[in-house]
Design a protein that fits this description.
This protein has 2 domains: 38 residues; 89 residues, no CATH class. It has 129 residues and is of the alpha+beta class. The chain has a 3-stranded antiparallel beta sheet with strand order 1-3-2, covered by helices on one side. The chain starts with a helix and ends in a 5-residue tail after the last strand. Helix 1 crosses helix 2 and helix 3 packs parallel to helix 4. A hairpin with a 3-residue loop joins strand 2 and strand 3. The chain contains 4 helices and 3 strands.
Length: 129
């Protein structure tokens, strides 16, 4: 089941990058998705995938909310923090975690450190002193 989710993730990325649903592009996308090597160092649980997909559904309204906040009340303070990668993450789940962080307007992942950390840039409101 997890292999199917990785295939679907690869195809989704392919179609988002190419923006073409022609039969030839579908054949090429399926071929590329199947030919890419799958590094399965750790088995991902189905519940981890479902949890991340639920977080994506929550992130969409959050992104709109943050976009309006930035437009209505300027955010002039910036921070760079290190966030720990959740345990037992496969490369597909790490990609989705980075996508979730970067999807919202106030945050972006600057770098993924192989030792299990994300370097995250935050835009915040300046605190009144």
């Amino acid at each position: 089941m997890i292999g199917h989710l990785n295939l679907i993730l690869r195809l989704t990325i392919w179609f988002l990058l190419t923006a073409d649903l022609s039969p030839a592009n579908i054949i090429i996308g399926v071929s590329v998705a199947l030919l890419l090597p799958g590094r399965q160092k750790a088995a991902a649980a189905l519940k981890d995938w479902l949890h991340v997909l639920g977080e994506i559904l929550v992130a969409v309204p959050q992104a709109y909310k943050e976009a309006f906040e930035i437009m209505l009340r300027p955010h002039k303070a910036e921070d760079v923090t290190m966030e720990r990668v959740k345990p037992r993450r496969t490369p597909g789940l790490i990609f989705l975690d980075i996508f979730l962080i970067t999807f919202t307007p106030k945050t972006i992942v600057l770098k993924y450190h192989e030792r299990g950390w994300y370097e995250v840039h935050w835009v915040r409101r300046r605190k009144k002193t």
